[in-house]
Design brief:
The complex is a heterotrimer of chains A (about 120), B (about 240) and C (about 120).
Chain A: H1 13-39, H2 46-55, H3 59-87, H4 95-116
Chain B: E1 4-12, E2 16-24, H1 31-42, E3 61-64, E4 67-70, H2 76-79, E5 86-89, E6 96-98, E7 101-102, H3 105-113, H4 136-142, H5 152-156, H6 158-162, H7 169-179, H8 187-193, H9 208-212, H10 219-235
Parallel strand pairs in B: 1-5
Antiparallel strand pairs in B: 1-2, 3-4, 3-5, 6-7
Chain C: H1 3-45, H2 51-58, H3 62-89, H4 95-121
Helix pairs in contact in C: 1-3, 3-4
The chains are: A mainly alpha (about 120), B alpha+beta (about 240), C mainly alpha (about 120).
Chain lengths: ~120, ~240, ~120
């Protein structure tokens, strides 16, 4: 059994960016079918959709929704970084874009939180 | 300097354990100096590789405190300060022959599998090839040709760990330098060799290769170049 | 290695290269869609979500329908490739298994997604 690397080899920004990108993508992927099913409640009429929306008014759902919005924003900007690395001019690992992704996700999270509590 | 350094060194093959040694600290001591001291004075059966001792050959690459590095170019003072333990293991992702010496066969086999060898068509009767040094292709090739095959990048890559058939950053970087060599005539075969998940398309831009390369080469960018070229060729049916 | 074996590996590699390519193209489409969607969902969430408000905006809105249908298709192309990679690399799935799970998930997203678009637009 060949030896692999441990956490110490993975302690650099590009690796964290990879890990966050994969985990956020996984979370969003698993969420999507739920999201589509929820919207499909409207097939049973506005009342059915309204019922679902009121059911998810509670805190645990709002927290989950907020987390997904932050992860979506992060995955978007992390993805833009990857597209730049793969299709743009050679400019190293573009670590500044990791900062952009984190900042954009934080800002989106704050704006969404404001919308939630408005 | 009378203080001593505790060093843990891997002993065994793929399975084994760390053995502990006490080594006197010296000024400007490198990790290779430490390994050499242990083998000469404390543990004659310790197996390890080195050659030039001066950061030119890449033979002394090992895992130092979890990171793949050239041990002749790693000062102990930088990785193990007073009171800290120095941990030395063989390179990851390669079978261990004994202690700190790994079997590099697979690494070089993948080099060949990626068509990392130049194929020309000119003979001694032809004039010299004219290659503009400032051309984009030459600049791209130059960025990667200093690779000496030390396997630090290969040992640092998690995709190599997760996908045994993945060619790895060094082989793909070499392929990219040849893709950009205007004299090479085996381009279609080379693009085929590096296409797909065993080739460039499994790279997830973790960037550990670029972070750790002692020659400051960026295999991540070489692989990005291959992804583009191969992806477009694949979609156009040229492969 | 016989010509047949080399051709098999080659065929697999080319197919994987194409999947990479379409995953990146769909990523570019999704980048635009997600920016719009973030704005939409922030706007919709203000003052609380209500079915009447949502459906008031989406019903018979064909621009909305086209945009979100494109969004769904782009997701169906983009998401499964990443899931297959996770399956291969972290769950130890074989190539064929990961591929078929990915295709199944793509179909799930396509069907449930277009159904959702229809649900709010019709």
């Amino acid at each position: 059994m060949k030896r692999g690397s441990d956490l110490r080899a993975r302690s650099h920004p590009s690796y964290w960016a990879f890990l966050m990108h994969r985990l956020s993508g996984l979370a969003l992927a698993l969420f999507l079918p739920l999201h589509f099913w929820a919207l499909s409640r409207a097939l049973d009429g506005a009342g059915a959709l309204e019922g679902f929306l009121r059911f998810t008014d509670r805190g645990v759902f709002k927290l989950a929704e907020w987390s997904l919005v932050v992860l979506l924003a992060f995955h978007l900007m992390g993805g833009v970084r990857l597209l730049l690395i793969e299709f743009g001019p050679a400019s190293g690992l573009r670590k500044n874009w990791i900062a952009v992704a984190a900042g954009f996700a934080a800002a989106t999270g704050m704006v969404y939180a404001l919308a939630l509590f408005n | 300097m009378a203080s001593s350094l505790t060093v843990k060194i891997w002993r065994g093959t793929d399975s084994g354990a760390f053995s502990s040694y006490e080594v006197p600290r010296q000024a400007a001591q490198t990790v290779l100096d430490v390994v050499t001291h242990v083998q000469r004075f404390l543990e004659p059966t310790l197996a390890y590789r080195f050659a030039c001792r001066v950061g030119m050959c890449g033979s002394c690459a090992m895992t130092v405190n979890g990171k793949a590095r050239w041990t002749c170019r790693t000062h102990v003072a930088r990785v193990a300060r007073e009171g800290e333990v120095l941990e030395i293991a063989p390179l990851a992702n390669l079978p261990v022959i004994k202690d700190l010496a790994t079997d590099m066969t697979g690494f070089f086999d993948k080099w060949a599998a990626a068509r990392g060898r130049f194929h020309g068509s000119a003979t001694r009767h032809d004039d010299f090839a004219r290659v503009a040094p400032g051309s984009p292709e030459r600049a791209a090739a130059n960025a990667g040709i200093e690779c000496i095959g030390c396997a630090v990048c290969y040992a640092s890559c998690d995709v190599v760990t997760w996908r045994p058939e993945f060619l790895g950053p060094a082989a793909l970087n070499r392929a990219w330098t040849l893709v950009n060599d205007v004299r090479d005539v085996a381009q279609t075969e080379r693009l085929r060799a590096v296409a797909g998940d065993a080739g460039c398309h499994a790279c997830h831009t973790q960037g550990s290769c670029t972070e750790r390369c002692p020659k400051q080469i960026a295999p991540t960018l070489a692989i990005a170049g291959l992804k583009r070229k191969v992806g477009r060729a694949a979609v156009r049916g040229e492969l | 290695m016989s010509d047949a074996n080399m051709s098999d590996a080659n065929v697999a590699g080319v197919a994987q290269a194409k999947r990479w390519y379409w995953q990146r193209i769909s990523a570019m489409v999704l980048a635009l869609c997600v920016v719009v969607h973030l704005a939409v969902l922030i706007y919709a969430t203000r003052g609380g979500l209500s079915a009447a408000e949502i459906l008031g905006r989406t019903q018979h809105n064909w621009g909305f329908a086209v945009f979100y249908a494109v969004f769904v298709v782009a997701c169906a192309v983009h998401v499964p490739v990443g899931l297959a990679n996770i399956g291969r690399e972290w769950l130890g799935l074989g190539e064929a298994t990961a591929l078929w799970l990915a295709r199944a998930f793509a179909l799930l997203l396509l069907v449930t997604g277009l159904r959702a678009v229809y649900a709010v637009v019709a």
